[in-house]
């Protein structure tokens, strides 16, 4: 590695054993850093060598990122992306995805059937069940915050604190909902006290899932601008499609509150994609499947609530339509117990054997499909007479999605133009 080799010479050419004595690695491992024919060492090795030589660590990291990103992007199906890791077999991922799809499908069917009934019993039981599971998940996450802080782990202290804040906000909104339905006897609660908690949850959860995706491989696939564009386009696509379903279903969309209620399932769908990102990078596949299932279950009940609240002459929200929320909180509590802390350094994507598409292609396809759905749903919806707030919102979403795609494309062209080839990157480090 040319840069570190030059720094080594400028420091008087210390021996490999002298350098290794200042790291936790053996001299044979350190020798890989200075061997151009050896595979690119992992960042922790390079970082400690650079530190022992008093090299510019930020510059070294940029060079290492340039060298590692193309390498992981062109991995074949029989090679490993991580340092010393074997390719991940696809059977476990396929089974998890199948189980997740079946679980979400059953929840959607149950919720949609329940939303058409007029059952009035079990309201307090279903609401209390959500509060108990939500409080349990928040308590577990707070314990993990405390343990991370005791270890001096600032990264995971922040990560689990954001997750705890998200679950606590949602549970607080559910408590307000319980009080309105059980104590004040409102079939569909009025006011927006519970909405504050429900809307705060995605903000905290998005920050935590962004940290999670960055540590588990996504920076090696796409940079931050591309990833933010993908999430935003997915939200716009889900939001526009939901408004289109309300229009074609002849629901009452005259109230501006409909725009707020439509954001619930759209944000849950977007967060489920963010939770799934480490899985397509071959990381945390069980935790990703749990989180995605939980968020899609919440989206099912959110959609049920939206449809009933915008249906004329509808009274009440059936307790069985809250099955998605119960699944959301219960799965979340299990995930809070089994979730691993974030690694101290960014992990490269792990190759999945016989996986037909690279994570880069999956994210690009999801962004393009979401943008297409946004434009199509907006065009179909605007053919109908709509209230001004709905029209303005759809037009704004389409414009912002288009500008976001243009920004991501411009950034890609600029970034690719300044990215060296594999051989240039390896020789530069």
Automatic annotation (TrEMBL):
UniProt keywords (A-Z) are:
Membrane, Transmembrane, Transmembrane helix
Per the record's keyword annotation, is Acetylation included, yes or no? no
UniProt keyword Membrane, yes or no: yes
Q: Could you list the residue ranges that cross the membrane?
A: 93-115, 127-146, 158-180, 196-213, 225-247, 259-281, 288-307, 322-342, 362-384, 390-410
Q: What is this protein called?
A: HTH cro/C1-type domain-containing protein
Q: Which organism is it from?
A: Nocardia terpenica
